[in-house]
Design a protein that fits this description.
Order of helices and strands: HHHHHHHHHHHHHH
Largest sheet: none
Structural class: mainly alpha
Number of strands: 0
Shape: globular
Distance between the termini: 22 Å
Helix content: over 70%
Number of helices: 14
Oligomer: single chain
Length: about 300
């Protein structure tokens, strides 16, 4: 069971991290006046991709919660999430100075770049702290989950907290999926029917513009169950490899999109739709491959790997 779990987790993350790169290409590499929010593929991706990442983070965090004591668990999260956040924050800070001519050359300038970039890593860290509270304050009682969601909802937007407000319910849902072993309770013969039903429901809720909590949950459940089901039948080695380095793909491509793609690599409106679509697809594949190769270089050195990729 352990091997299966790791396999589907990496495959699902690999699939979704590529979709994230593709979605950013649709947003930043198309003409500046293009209404990307009306693009069908963009809507399909953004309806579930970050919620799914957070559900998987919560799913895996359940193991951390039961493996470490409180302080060792917090230290593990600092090493695994906050160290790469601080390192990539420094890279972001340098890019702001070199590329944008940012003149705030001080510790505060660096801290500002770190705090207000890479929101997803901050959300993972904050959600992990909430996760520890579920065990050490509420003793894993379900009422505690509800109380934390309420507290999260009324928290002020301090620093980079707004992403946590959106993502905490999904993180806690991931914890509950692992806690109650939901996947183990679904009969294999029923998985295909459930996947198709979830897929249809996702398309309907997306079309009706339902809230992210509903569309994100349904879409994530469909994709996660799909890969949980088919990873037992197919290898999907490419997606699995991408999923193993998804954090560095997210961080590296985020910098490239923000500092270069959106300003220097937009395709002209004068090209035909097929050419623009091919450009976006090719760029997304190229960036994903470049980020993957960079990640493999990072992994050749243990210290560099810890600094840029965490655990």
């Amino acid at each position: 069971m352990g091997t299966e779990r790791e396999k589907w987790v990496d495959i699902a993350r690999g699939f979704t991290i590529y979709l994230m790169v593709l979605g950013h290409c649709i947003q930043f590499a198309t003409p500046i006046d293009y209404d990307y929010k009306e693009n069908m593929i963009f809507c399909l991706i953004y309806g579930f991709h970050m919620p799914m990442f957070m559900i998987i983070s919560g799913y895996l965090f359940w193991y951390t919660l039961n493996r470490y004591s409180l302080w060792k668990g917090i230290i593990a999260k600092l090493k695994g999430v906050m160290i790469p956040c601080a390192v990539w924050g420094f890279v972001t800070y340098l890019c702001e100075i070199i590329v944008l001519g940012y003149d705030e050359k001080s510790l505060w300038g660096y801290l500002n770049s770190t705090i207000y970039s890479n929101w997803f890593l901050w959300a993972v860290f904050y959600c992990s702290l909430y996760g520890f509270i579920t065990k050490y304050v509420f003793h894993n009682h379900l009422l505690g989950y509800g109380i934390l969601i309420f507290i999260n909802f009324i928290m002020p937007d301090i620093g980079n907290y707004s992403g946590t407000r959106r993502m905490l319910p999904f993180f806690l849902l991931g914890m509950l999926l692992n806690r109650y072993k939901i996947f183990n309770k679904i009969k294999e013969k029923d998985e295909t029917i459930i996947i198709l039903t979830l897929g249809i429901c996702y398309l309907i809720t997306l079309k009706l513009h339902w809230i992210e909590l509903i569309t994100g949950t349904i879409g994530s459940a469909c994709v996660i169950l799909f890969f949980y089901h088919f990873s037992r039948r197919f290898t999907m080695i490419v997606l699995q490899k991408l999923g193993q380095v998804s954090i560095s793909i997210y961080l590296f491509t985020g910098l490239v999109f923000w500092f270069w793609i959106k300003d220097y690599c937009r395709i002209s409106e004068s090209y035909r739709y097929l050419i623009k679509s091919s450009y976006v697809l090719g760029l997304s594949l190229g960036l994903t491959l470049a980020a993957f190769c960079l990640s493999k270089l990072f992994q050749k050195n243990r210290i560099v790997s810890r600094l840029f990729m965490g655990r």
